[in-house]
Design goal:
The protein is of the alpha/beta class. It folds into four domains: about 5-70 and about 305-425, inorganic pyrophosphatase (n-terminal core), CATH 3.90.1640; about 80-125 and about 250-300, Roll (CBS-domain); about 135-245, HprK N-terminal domain-like (Udp-n-acetylmuramoylalanyl-d-glutamate--2,6- Diaminopimelate Ligase, Chain: A, domain 1); about 430-549, Diaminopimelate Epimerase, Chain A, domain 1 (Roll), CATH 3.10.310.20. It is about 35% helix and about 20% strand. It has 20 helices and 21 strands. The strands form five sheets. The chain has a six-stranded parallel beta sheet. Strands 7-11-10-9-8 form a five-stranded mixed beta sheet, with helices on both faces. Strands 17-18-19-20-21 form a five-stranded mixed beta sheet. α1 packs parallel to α11 (about 355-365). The longest helix is centred in the N-terminal third of the chain and has 16 residues, at about 15-30. It is elongated. The two termini are about 60 Å apart.
């Protein structure tokens, strides 16, 4: 059985401070209530969030770029392997005992070097109509000894590579003289001394007496005199011959061109490869080592990744592969955005300025103590989302909970708040594309797919000098990802106003939404600080009018 996957608490793509802090704070609440959850993030941490995490000595959540089912979701814990030097007898016993259909072959460094299947063994068996030639195989007498369960009567150099063939001495003296050559391995049953002596006189490498037949002292003495290895085996000549054919090392018949997968490969990708290759099983490789096998005829439906969504509820803003995951809960403060689930789930939404205002309410409701560091992060999120209570989305309840959290975190709201916002407004090292994608969210408005990003600054002058560069990158992003429109909000925290840059068609929607001249691809919006409350609703209504007209 595979280890049960954890439940991830995760915010939207291009996460802001509320998204990251919500994942951490809600995961802590769920853990306190006895649930196995892990905070996660779907994108890069911005500078403002980095400041908050550093200030309160907290680690960023685990980065998860998508939740598509991958090979790692279906790897069985148990798998068998053989070494390339192991013989076919050992391999056959392994397959018999485990029921494996395909077995990876490893080198002495435990790295994948080939694969061998039941079909390969069966083919070898049906080709074994006679004794196999061991020329060019580097088989030694020691290899043969290991499969016939032989007892050494006269010892010798067992590690010398066999130069001759394996023969069965069951004919006349004439036949022995004709077919048995020097350096051969000879199998012989209960024969008279003259036949055995005739074999020894051919200067063979090894004489194997089958069926535990009696061996005269004269034969032993003759073998010792000629320095010929003498073995005795309990198996009859037929069985012994079959066993010797199994002393061949696995590397001699394994398939060397192996199709293998990595644990990070998506199941949707490997299914196509399986259909084309039509092999039964495929090794899973990590750092050149086999960590499992995946079977084409038992490709299991993986356990879905379970998610708790915080600070968003729109599929277009969710982590990649959300349609393949199971959403358990949604904690959010935005508009309902069309998320569909296969079964009822727990949701908690409220028209407040920040998701962490809702989460702090849940701490108080469940009477769970809020650790100082967690309180600091929750306060940071409220300050960020409400722009230190200046945003029109801010409610008295946001401020009330922020004051409680500030007491627990032992910080001054105004002083810490300005430090936090100042850290987030530092765009000196940001590229134009990073600004365009900063805190970016995707929206479906009617039949239009648009993106709206927001960057808060203390002074708009420097960033607005880069207007043309920003517009150029906005256009590139629209073409690359097939967006109809791109909007970038440059929000001045001190002026409490936004310069809205936009590209795409038709840009007349912007003019209609805000009753402004939109010919310069930028409009100034005094008093506008909230994307959720002052940009998206206006655009939604303008798009509706466009559709109706």
């Amino acid at each position: 059985m595979r280890k049960k996957k954890p439940i991830y608490v995760i915010g939207h793509r291009n996460p802001d401070t509320d998204s990251i802090c919500s994942a951490i704070s809600y995961a802590n609440l769920k853990k306190s209530l006895g649930e196995n959850v892990i905070p996660a993030r779907a994108g890069k941490v911005n500078k403002e969030t980095e400041f908050a995490l550093s200030y309160f000595a907290m680690q960023a959540p685990e980065l998860i770029t998508d939740v598509y089912p991958r090979v790692s979701d279906i790897i069985p814990e148990a798998h068998v392997t053989v070494n390339e030097h192991d013989n076919l007898r050992k391999l056959g016993k392994l397959i018999h005992d485990t029921g494996a259909k395909s077995v990876p072959v490893l080198s002495d460094k435990n790295e994948l070097t080939g694969i061998i299947t039941v079909s390969d063994l069966a083919r070898r068996y049906f080709e074994d109509l006679g004794m196999q030639s061991f020329s060019n195989t580097k088989i030694t007498i020691s290899n043969i000894l290991s499969v016939v369960d032989g007892q050494i009567i006269v010892d010798g150099n067992k590690n010398e590579v066999i130069k001759g063939e394996v023969r069965i001495a069951d004919g006349s003296q004439h036949t022995i003289d004709k077919f048995i050559k020097a350096n051969d391995i000879v199998l012989v049953g209960d024969r008279e001394f003259t036949a055995l002596k005739a074999c020894l006189e051919r200067n063979i490498a090894c004489l194997i007496i089958t069926g535990s037949s009696n061996i005269s002292a004269d034969v032993i003495e003759e073998a010792r005199r000629k320095n010929i290895i003498l073995l005795s085996t309990p198996y009859d000549t037929y069985i012994c011959a079959r066993l010797i054919n199994q002393c061949v090392p696995v590397r001699q018949i394994m398939q060397k061109n192996v199709t293998c997968f990595k644990p990070t490969d998506m199941l949707s990708d490997i299914k196509g490869v399986m259909e084309k290759k039509k092999f039964r099983s495929y090794p899973i490789i990590e750092n050149k080592h086999v960590i499992g096998m995946v079977s084409s005829d038992k490709l299991m439906v993986p356990e879905k990744t379970q998610l708790i969504l915080v600070d968003h509820n729109e599929p277009t803003q969710a982590i990649e592969g959300i349609e393949e995951a199971q959403v358990l809960e949604i904690i959010d403060h935005h508009r309902l955005g069309g998320m569909q689930t296969s079964e009822p789930i727990f949701t908690r939404q409220a028209p407040v300025g920040c998701t962490n205002t809702i989460i702090s309410d849940m701490y108080f409701q469940y009477n769970v103590a809020i650790p100082k560091k967690i309180a600091g992060l929750m306060l940071s999120a409220i300050i960020s989302d409400t722009v230190l209570f200046k945003s029109p989305t801010c409610t008295p309840h946001d401020r009330e909970n922020a004051e409680k959290l500030a007491q627990i975190a032992d910080v001054n709201i105004e002083e810490y708040g300005m430090e936090l916002l100042k850290a987030g407004s530092d765009i000196g090292n940001m590229t134009a594309m990073e600004i365009v994608k900063n805190d970016m969210k995707e929206f479906q408005l009617g039949n239009r797919k648009i993106i709206v990003s927001q960057t808060s600054v203390m002074d708009s002058g420097d960033i607005l000098k880069r207007k043309n560069e920003l517009l150029e990158n906005m256009n590139k992003l629209c073409k690359k990802d097939n967006y109809d429109m791109s909007l970038v909000m440059i929000t001045n925290i001190l002026e409490e106003a936004t310069n809205l840059l936009f590209t795409g068609k038709p840009n007349t929607i912007i003019g209609e939404a805000f009753n402004k001249d939109s010919s310069q691809n930028m409009i100034y919006l005094p008093g506008v600080m909230s994307r959720k409350k002052q940009i998206i609703p206006q655009l939604t209504e303008a798009v509706k009018k466009h559709i109706n007209n």
